[in-house]
Amino acid sequence: MDQVAVLSRVQPNHRLLLTGASAPGFVRRLLGRAARSSAESCADQNSSLGGIQLRWTSTRTINAPADRVFRAVADPEEFQNAIPGGSKVEYLTSNRTGVGTKFRSTRLMKGKPSTFEQEVTEFVPPERVRLVNVTHETVWDTTFSVRVDGGATVLTLTMDSQTDRFVARLMTRLIAGMVQKALDGDMDAVKAYCERQPPLSGGA
Length: 204
Description:
The chain is α+β, with helices and mostly antiparallel strands. The protein is built from six helices and eight strands; from the N terminus they run ααββααββββββαα. The protein has a single domain, classed as Alpha-D-Glucose-1,6-Bisphosphate, Chain A, domain 4 (2-Layer Sandwich). A hairpin with a 2-residue loop joins β7 and β8 (152-163). α2 (23-40) packs across α5, α3 (66-74) packs across α4 (76-82) and α3 (66-74) packs across α6.
């Protein structure tokens, strides 16, 4: 979910891309760089509702029970405890778990707070949780999937971005590699967090 903080640092200056007489050639060069960056980060693209969708994935095998892993990614407060720079969670709905839960998270990025809102759209313990966020006219759709593999648990993060705005599409493609690196870092942190926590006494 760190993608929002990454994007917020890049997009405020996006209007500069389309100014000046040399803008068309400049944009073409940026698109070429973006395509190479997307390929290097294994981001997939396809057309949907007039927008371009980019997909990032990250998987970790965790030596912890499935319910422990699910709780770490499905509970907003626990997720903030697990990731670097995690801070506070403010709930925007009366419910704090399950489909329909909305919350605002604050995370420190290089010492500066970055705040974003998310909504839980799927909640299937201890198998899957899906969260949706809209930032800078881009929809960020994140799913954490959990499955048991022998004595370990496999956690897979799949994140899609979609927008019908040209500049937002361009900027998202340009930072595809940064987003992948941030997601991998969060997954490493979740793995380490789960492996040092005691098993849950009850269900997720």
